[in-house]
From TrEMBL:
Ranges annotated as spanning the membrane: none
Source organism superkingdom: Bacteria
Keyword presence, Lipoprotein: yes
Lineage: Bacteria, Pseudomonadati, Bacteroidota, Flavobacteriia, Flavobacteriales
Stretches the record annotates as Disordered: 24-46
Sulfatase-modifying factor enzyme-like domain mapped to chain residues: 48-465
GN (gene name): gldK
Protein name: Gliding motility lipoprotein GldK
PROSITE patterns assigned to the protein according to its UniProt record, in alphabetical order: PROKAR_LIPOPROTEIN (PS51257)
Amino acid sequence: MNRILVSTLLLSLSFSSCKMLKNGGNSNKNDGQITSKSSSSWTPVRPKGMVPIPGGSFVLGQSDYDFTQNNDAPVKTVSVAGFFMDDTEITNSEYQIFVNYVKDSIARTALAMKAEELGFDPMNPGGSDAGIGAYSYVSGSKDGEGTPYDEYIQQSNTGRDGNTMDGRKLNWNVKLEWDKYKYPDVDYTEVMEGLYFPPEERMNGERRIDTRKLTYQYVVVDQMAAAKQRGTFQVDFRKEFQVNVYPDTTVWVRDFNYSYNDPMHQDYFWHSAYSNYPVVGVNWNQANAFADFRTRYHNNALNKKKKKNGSANKVITYRLPTEIEWEYAARGGIQNAPYPWGGPYLTDDRGCYLANFKPKRGDYIEITKGKKTGFMYTAPVKTFQPNGYGLYDMAGNVAEWTLSPHNRTSYQMASSLNPSITLSNETKMVVRGGSWKDIGYMLMVSTRDMEQKDSARSFIGFRTVQPFPDGSKVTYRKTK
């Protein structure tokens, strides 16, 4: 009897398994053979504002005499995989999108928590159409109706402290009202006023957002630690970050003693006159947070597209370039050249400077024949000619954060295959490219500099990259 039951059970499982395999195929005409999904190459979509950098090999390091004796890393031939790179440094207007997103998400989270506290039911959208109730947490379903998942998340988050990463979905379809005379109700007013500096901390009674509250949360996996301990789960190497995103505008005053830079401190980041200037006052942690936000922001847009069209791929992660990627891109396809434009001179055949830097001691502007040829501080992006890959300001204007920690033996330690090193507890990060306040030597593509990762400067900005697979169909700029 037992033998018959076992045989019947195995036969049942066999039929069930066959059915699952048949239904799980990609084609209705499944003949049981496993084939590749597609034989064609994947064509990446070039992100707006980025240019493709082809993979290749180059001689890394100082190609000219190092008269400072500070860049003693020996030359080394390395290979670098292809990637997209921002054609300019991240500008004030681009970084403002990040700051505004964080501000809006914090406001919406606070409003949703207050609505939940007041008893508004996110599972009943029709009952949350007035006042603060319109900002309740919402369902992620296509029709907006509550689902068992929404109910589970709502119950499991009871008593939580408003962590925006807890799985609940904010309502981004309702416009936030920032005009204090148009607030819909008292509860809404209480939440929104909590985002501003309290009256006792205001300057001349001016009502301003408390930038200390503008924090961005994201999670990464410590890949190096995970690689050393094989067989463990990613969750064991999960790192969660909370980063205040507002730039430190006081750098314009703090970086220079006995210098009147107050106008830059007051206006540089927010005034529309500086929209197209590179953002500064951003430390390494903030630059990394921006890269994570850019990935999330792009994916959110694709998710909206997916709901309309039914399909969309996630984007490959944006990040800071490694030190080696930065130098490779800065050279613009020219081997052994000291500057992005080739070199060895800092001016063209008409005597015009090829980058924004300090040409002489005490002279930041350089007036030639009665004509101003330079800039006292930063310059608008794309003021000077790009290099062979189409990248602007890879020398001068602002120096740029890289992903790499600073170590004098980095070149010897790093692999020759897509080199990059990661050090535990690193505090000093590599900065490249020189800036508006530097001399010509700092503009050389091989010159290395460093800064503390939690430091912000008036002369350091950044740009991001997005890798793409080797063999992708990409149209590259013709180098000259």
